[in-house]
Amino acid sequence: MPQLNPTPWFLIMLLTWFTFTVAMQPKILSFLQTNSPSTKTTLPHKTTPWPWPWT
């Protein structure tokens, strides 16, 4: 099975990443987050043992 020639595909990959980082990334990062991170401290959950019927 022949391998692809990487010369044109490498240029396409570079142009794609350049387009993403220059044009699309600032637009995506400018959106506001809908759920802001909470500063509330979490308490550990109290667990109860499982009532096994054969014990």
UniProtKB/TrEMBL annotation:
Per the annotation, which location comes first and is thus the protein's main one? Answer: mitochondrion
A Gene Ontology cellular component where this protein is annotated is: proton-transporting ATP synthase complex
Keyword annotations from UniProtKB, A to Z: ATP synthesis, CF(0), Hydrogen ion transport, Ion transport, Membrane, Mitochondrion, Transmembrane, Transmembrane helix, Transport
Q: Where in the cell is it found?
A: Mitochondrion membrane
Bilayer topology term: Single-pass membrane protein
| Single GO BP term | proton motive force-driven ATP synthesis
| Short name of one Pfam family | ATP-synt_8
* One GO MF term: proton transmembrane transporter activity
Transmembrane portions of the chain: 6-24
- Which family is annotated? Belongs to the ATPase protein 8 family.
- Name used for this protein in its record: ATP synthase complex subunit 8
